[in-house]
Fold:
Amino acid sequence: MASRRLMSLGWSLIDWIETFCVHGPGDVEGQPVELDDEFAAFVIRAYQVNPDGSRRKRRAVISRSKGRAKSELAAFLSCAEGLAPVRFSHFARRGEVSPWGYAYSPGEPVGAPVTRPEILCFATELGQAGNTYDAIRYMLDPDTCSAALLDTYGRVDVGLTRINLPGGGTITPEAAADSSADGRKTTFAVCDESHLWTLPRMKRLHQVVLRNLLKRKIASGWMLETTTMFAPGEQSVAEGTFEFARAIEEGRAGDVGLLFDHREAPPRFDARKAKDRLAGLKSVYGPAAAWMDLQAIADSYDDPQTSAAEWERYWFNRPKSLQGEWLNQLDWDLCNAGAPIPDGEDVVLGLDASLSDDSTALVAVSVSQPHHVHLVGLWERPPHVADWTVDIGAVENEVRLAAMRWKVLEVACDPFVLNRTMEVLAADGLPITEFRQSAQRMTPATQRVTALVRTHQLRHDGDARLARHVSNAVLREDSRGVRLVKEAAKSPRKIDAAVAMVMAVDRAQWHNENDVDYDVLDSIL
Structure:
C-alpha cells in the first residue's frame, strides 16, 4: 500500500467505501467491501492533494486484465463522489474523527462533499447502461445497499436512467454521442473500457467531457478511465492515453495531472508455454489471483479458436497487434545490455527521417560482435502539436558529436529524404553512404536483425524510445520481400528508430566481415 506520508484524501475515502459500500451484482453481491492493497494504493494516489489542498490529479487511468473488477472500483468511486467527503476542506486537528468514525492523523487532509455533484458514467454503445452504472444502482438502491448507507443517507432515489442524490445532484448513464455531453457541468466522469472507444464520435466525446470537467473550479472535476489493453492501430481512446503517458515519461509532453496505473504480465513470461501462462497470470492479477480461476484462463490459450494475440491482450494485458508483431518482447528484453556503447568504439550510424518531417532517428551500432545498438537521437513531433518540423540542423550536429565520441566508419542514409543532409555532412568529411530503403536492400537487412534478436546475439542499451519504435513495427511479407512497415499508413506510432537500427546493423555486419584497415586507408587518402 502507498505510504501514509502522501497527502491524500484517499485514506479516509477507503474507510468510507469499506463502511458504506457493498459489492455489486455477481458472485459476492451484497457482501461488505474490503479494498485490496493494489486498488487502495490507486485510490490514495488518485486523491492526492497539493500543500494548498488542490487536487494533484485531474485524470486517472487504471489498466488491468479482463475480470479485475475495474468497473466495480469505478462504481465505488462514483458512489463516493456523490455522497462522501471527496474534496479538500482542511487539515485534521489532533484527535479529529469523521462522522462515520474514521480517526484522522494530525495534519491529514479532511474532505467535504461536492455541492450538487454531476456524475456521468459513459457506456460504449447507445442504450447500454454499462457495468459501472449497474453496480452503482445496486450499491445505492434502498433494497440492496448496506444498512450503514441507508441509516446515514436515507433512501436514495435510484432509477434506470438517473440517480437523484440527497441534497441535489445526479448520477446518470450516458450514451456515446458527443453532443449529449456538451454544455454539461460535470464533477466526475467514468470512461469505462476505453480500449473499446474507437469510433470518431467516442473520441470526440472524450475530449468534450475533459473540457467540461474544467468548468467548476471549486468542484474540481476529474475523470477516471478504466481499460484493458488496446489493440495497436485501432487508435482507441486508450491507445491515445497510453501514448500520452509514454510521452510524459520520456519528457516529450508536460505532466498535466495524469495518473497512469498500468499492470501487465512481465515480459519474461512466454504465453506459448503453459507454465509461464499460469505464472504470468498470477503476476498480472496480483491480489485478485486469489479469487480468479487462473488455471481455466491459462488452459483457454490452447483452444484452437482462441487468438493468441487477443489472449495476451485480455489476460496478460499486453499490447498485441492483430496484424502481427515483429520481435517478441521477451527476446528484446534478453538483449538488453543496460549500458551504452563505450566511447572510442568503431561504429556505424543509421539515420532515418520521415518524409513528413515528424520523426527522425539516429542510431549507432558497434562493428564488433555482438553488435551493440544505441539510440543517439530521436526527434519526434510532440503530442497535439500541428506546426512542427524536425530541426535538421540539430540532427546534423548530433551526427558530428557522435563522430567525436566514437570512430564512425559509416553514416548510412536514405537519399530519398536526406539528400541535403548527406551533402552537408560529406562536406564536413564524414563517411556518408547511400542506403536506399528498397525491398531488395531492406529484406535481407531486416531478416538479419530478426535472427540476431531471436537468438539473443544483439545488444542494446535498454532505451525505452527505441523499444517503443521496435514494438510499433509490423513485419510485412509480400511479393517484393519482407520489410518493416507501420501498422497503417497514417498511424501516429512511429518506427524510424527501428528502421535506422536495421540499416546500421546491416552495415556494421558488413564492416565486421570485411577486414579494412581504416587507419591505413585514412593515411593514403
Remarks:
- Residues 518-525 have pLDDT under 50 and may be disordered.
- The chain is about 35% helix and 15% strand.
